[in-house]
Each structure stands twice: as structure tokens, then as C-alpha cells.
Write a structure and sequence with these properties.
245 residues; alpha/beta; Fructose-1,6-Bisphosphatase, Chain A, domain 1; D-Maltodextrin-Binding Protein, domain 2; 2 domains
Length: 245
């Protein structure tokens, strides 16, 4: 029986996550070598499966040479075998595997595996986002928090929650561990496509920081900024960003 796109995304994210844990637990690799080995093995599994099971679709992976043929496709799989290579190599849990399907540029299907937490969050099985506490919480980079994020957090009196990968930060909002993820330091399509698909399915606001939509499968895969937050906070956050000029 063939899998739906959403089932395939979740299956691939989970499978890649299992392989990454096996590579890390083997003890054969350390530091940057571990990150490279994990990336290579997880990417091989994801790419082979997409090509075998969805041969007509386009494919964009962080770890694969870009094929411009994807630009002529309506359906394009966008994957990141290890989002947060540093965290993965350090034995932390705040790293992720991203598998998404963009249809006509829209992040339509997604799965984000958090293998260190034994979790896969999916666009086809959204759960209610837990209610927020009294004080807002904003996830920021644990190494390079963006100036805009710090300024908006100060304006909103939001508590800063340092965290690793983009996927882990976005899923912290989905899981109710944070309320706002604001990123302005630049990313690539594979960093956000799957998290955005999952966040949208959970009813969250997702946009560029000027409020415009996030569009995928472009020739230039660089994405300057991103906002994922609870719907009730979107207007205020966008207002504070605009006030920064």
C-alpha cells in the first residue's frame, strides 16, 4: 500500500533520525567528523527514498548538488538531513531532521524529527498548542542571537530561551515551550520549509519579518528572515520589527 506524502515525510524524518543516532552511538566519529558522517549517511537515505518513491518530483537537499530542474516542478521535496550539525556533534538534543514537500512554492507537507527527544512532529497530525504562560518566551540562537530578536524581546518583555537548530526552535513554539521564533540572520530553504509546514498545520503564524509570505523552490535558496509565533502575537511582533526600521 503506497504512503501519502505526509506519511512518507514522517517515515523519512524518523528513519534518518534513527540512522543519525546510530552513527553517533557507534563511537567511530567525533566532533566535526561526526557531523559530516551523519549528514552524509542521513542524506543518502533521504535522497534515495525520494527519488525511488516520488521520481517525478523535484528535490532540494542541503547536502546534495542543486539540480535546477526542480524549478520547473510543481512538487519539490526540500530536506535537511541534520539541522543543527553542531548540536548533533555535541551530543545535545536540540537538533532536527527536516522533510518537506513544497507545492507551487507553498510549504504544504512537513515532518520534523527531534531524534534526541524521540519525537516526530507532522503536518498531518496537529495537536493543540498548549496555552502560554503570563510572560512571553522567545527562542533565540544559543550562539548568535539576532539583534532584531533581542530588541523585540526587550520591547515585549519576553524571556529569552537559547536553543540550537532552527527546527528545534520552531518546534519549541509548536510544542508550547516558547511563543515566538524570530530569525533575521539569514537561512536557507531547507532550514525552514518543514518546520513552517508543521507550524502552519498547528495554526501558528508563519511569515517573513515584514509580514510577507514565505515562498519556496526559488532559484536563490537563501531566505533572509522568518517569524513563527502564536497568531495572537503576530501583529504586535510585526509592529515592533517595523518600528526598528
Amino acid at each position: 500500500m503506497s504512503m501519502s506524502d505526509a506519511e512518507l515525510a514522517a517515515h523519512l524524518a524518523q528513519d534518518a533520525g534513527r540512522i543519525l543516532l546510530e552513527v553517533r552511538d557507534s563511537g567511530h566519529y567525533h566532533g566535526k567528523d561526526l557531523g559530516r558522517a551523519g549528514d552524509t549517511e542521513a542524506n543518502a537515505v533521504l535522497v534515495a527514498a525520494v527519488r525511488a518513491l516520488r521520481p517525478e518530483d523535484g528535490l532540494l537537499s542541503e547536502e546534495e548538488k542543486d539540480n535546477p530542474a526542480r524549478l520547473g516542478k510543481q512538487r519539490v521535496w526540500i530536506v535537511d538531513p541534520v539541522d543543527g550539525t553542531r548540536e548533533y556533534g555535541e551530543g545535545r538534543t536540540d537538533w532536527a531532521v527536516h522533510v518537506a514537500l513544497a507545492v507551487d512554492g507553498v510549504p504544504s507537507v512537513g515532518a520534523v524529527a527531534l531524534p534526541g527527544l524521540d519525537l516526530v512532529l507532522r503536518s498531518d497530525s496537529p495537536a493543540p498548542v498548549p496555552p502560554p504562560p503570563e510572560r512571553l518566551r522567545m527562542v533565540v540562537s544559543r550562539t548568535r542571537p539576532a539583534r532584531e530578536a533581542l530588541a523585540v524581546a526587550e520591547a515585549l518583555d519576553a524571556e529569552l530561551v537559547p536553543m540550537g537548530s532552527a527546527g528545534a526552535k520552531a518546534m519549541a513554539v509548536v510544542r508550547g515551550e516558547a511563543d515566538i521564533y524570530l530569525h533575521s540572520g539569514g537561512q536557507y530553504e531547507w532550514d525552514s520549509c518543514a518546520p513552517v509546514a508543521v507550524a502552519i498545520a498547528h495554526g501558528l503564524h508563519c511569515s517573513r519579518i515584514d509580514g510577507s509570505p514565505l515562498v519556496y523552490n526559488r532559484a536563490d535558496t537563501f531566505m533572509p528572515d522568518l517569524l513563527i509565533c502564536r497568531q495572537e502575537h503576530a501583529g504586535r511582533v510585526l509592529q515592533e520589527i517595523a518600528a526598528l526600521g
